Amino acid sequence: MTREDEDRARTGASEESSMSIEYVNPADLGKPSGFTHAVAVRGGRTVYLAGQTALDAENRIAGADVVAQFERALGNLLTALTGSGGRPEHLVQLTVYIVDMDDYRAHAREIGKVWRSLIGAHYPAMAGIGVARLWDAEALVEVQGVAVVADEA
Predict the structure, then answer these.
(1) Could you read off the pLDDT of 139-152 as tens digits, one per residue?
(2) Alpha carbons 52 and 143: distance in angstroms, whole number
(3) Domains along the chain?
(4) What mean pLDDT comes out for the span 84-112?
(5) Are the CB atoms for 120 and 88 separated by under 8 Å?
(6) Which residue, among 39, 145, 10, has the nearest Cα to 86 in the 3D structure?
(7) What is the CA radius of gyration of the chain?
(8) Pick from 88, 58, 89: which is nearest to 74 by CA?
(9) 24 alpha carbon, distance to own chain's centre
């Protein structure tokens, strides 16, 4: 693999596109775990992904616990992303709204496993925000994101 190929693999650029995604983790901020401090993008088309909860096809919350609901919510977000022509590695920003932060943190390892099963080792800039409740009272978690996909030819 040439140095140019390695750079493309690291930044998300491809030969057929002028889009590049650079993950920035300055040493002064400490090593991130499960997120990236900053993401810089050149080129591409920005896709804003609406907040997704664990709603099923009948618009009912699926999953009794935060792990199951996170899996469904993240899956719903990825479905919207795929419908927009994107893939998980195109995510550049993700916000997780959490009703019970202590419960979420207690299940962090399981949630991390769900993340890796759906997205892999790709970590966009992220924030987790504690909220009193979400639109659907049964929802425990909601994910919202931004992606950058290659411009259509």
Answers:
(1) 999 999 999 998 87
(2) 5
(3) 44-149 (3.30.1330.40)
(4) 97
(5) yes
(6) 145
(7) 16
(8) 88
(9) 16
Mean pLDDT of 91-112: 97
Residue 111 corresponds to which tokens in the numbers above? 């949630």
- pLDDT of the residue at 23: 85
Q: What tokens appear for 68 in the block? A: 């199951």
Query: Which percentage of the chain shows pLDDT scores above 70?
Result: 88
Across-strand partners of 48?
146
The residues pairing with 109 across neighbouring beta strands, listed in sequence order, are none
Query: 0.85 cut: is pTM over it?
Result: no
Single-letter amino acid, residue 147: A
User: Which residues are within 8 A (CB) of 121 and not within 5 positions of it... i.e. 6 or more apart?
Assistant: none
Amino acid at 143: V
pLDDT of residue 35: 85
Given a contact cutoff of 8 angstroms between Cβ atoms, the answer to whether 124 and 94 are in contact is: yes
**H or E element that contains 144:** strand 141-149
Would you state the pLDDT for residue 68?
98
Amino acid residing at 132: A
Helix (H, G, I), strand (E, B) or coil at 106: helix
